[in-house]
Amino acid sequence: MTKPKTGEMLHLRGNALDKGEPVALPLTQSSMFHLPGDPDGHASYGRVDNPTWVHLEHVLSHLENAPCLSFPSGMGAISAALFATVKAGSRLLIPSDGYYVTRLLADRFLSNLGVSIVERPTTAFAEGGFDGIDVVFLESPSNPGLDMLDLPAIARPVREAGGITIADNTTMTPLGQRPLDLGVDVVVSSDTKAMGGHSDLLMGHVASRDAQIMERVEDWRRVSGAIPGPHEAWLLHRGLETLDVRFDRMCSSAQVLAELLASHPAVKHIRYPGLPGDPSHALAAAQTARFGFLLTITLESEAKAEQFINACPLLRPATSFGGVHSSAERRARWGDAVDPAFIRLSVGCEPVEELWPAIEASLNAL
């Protein structure tokens, strides 16, 4: 996998500056622009243009090696990608064990507009083939189960059958996995997570090398008003400047913790693609640059899971993931079809020599 040139990314703005211009990206907080005469080629209105977005999307495009558009949340990006590719009569295939809000969008809204929804579990996603499927929505690793899909092996037959593939790459980021390079047509991401990295913004993006799809995505953003705020765009740009170092620390620590947790007597079951015995290990080794910062553990009971999370001083009991603070939650509380004692653990940037003793002590106290 070709890693994006993150050093070059840090200087995308600097190498285009004129003398005396600020090195840090300015925040353009304006809904109106000075616009005498013919407006073509100039920023016109805050729902359509913003200079802060423009540079953020320049950086995101560098990371994805594809045209990119930003959105006010990950679900905003997913909605844009789906509304740009499905229509009445379309058949949409989605994972039955992926992020639950994607399923809610499909069930409560797309199905009412004449879109036929097909669900399959990640581990049997290719069973039944892809003939007659117009759009295939992929999630690999699955959230929260961490099962993997062979992206090229799915993208190829979907394209041959005339369909479009959309991959949610939130958990891996462009530094960990590159779905577009593996044949996928569209990538979506919740940049609220590791891309921003500081748990202080909601953002998302859509990337594709298909110009027609991106034109429809941009039309959707402009007409629906699903636009990011300039301050959030500015925060995400700042977060991206440290993505490389944060992602490296988080993935390295997750590998260490997974190996230690796998041998702890309080842990009944563990999933982490970096463990040689994990069902996702072979696919992850072939398809990703890193094994990620998410792992899951299952303890003896719901009560012990709650006790473990709430008693550990270096774990935030919170939903979402990918921040500099390690966090954990029982996913069953949101309705995921998992064991009540199943915990999704997002490894942050704390030194692992501090993080493991805190986790171990909390487990030992159960």
From TrEMBL:
Entry GO MF terms = cystathionine gamma-lyase activity; pyridoxal phosphate binding
Q: Which residues form a coiled coil?
A: none
Q: What is one Gene Ontology biological process annotated in the Swiss-Prot or TrEMBL record?
A: cysteine biosynthetic process via cystathionine
Cellular component, GO, one term: cytoplasm
The record ties this protein, via Pfam families, to:
Cys_Met_Meta_PP
Q: Does the keyword Manganese apply?
A: no
Question: Does the keyword Transport feature in the UniProt annotation?
Answer: no
InterPro entries the record matches: Cys/Met-Metab_PyrdxlP-dep_enz, PyrdxlP-dep_Trfase, PyrdxlP-dep_Trfase_major, PyrdxlP-dep_Trfase_small
The Swiss-Prot or TrEMBL record lists the needed cofactor(s) as:
pyridoxal 5'-phosphate
Alphabetical UniProt keywords: Lyase, Pyridoxal phosphate
Give the family per the record. Answer: Belongs to the trans-sulfuration enzymes family.
Its protein name is Cystathionine gamma-lyase
Q: Which organism is it from?
A: Ruegeria conchae
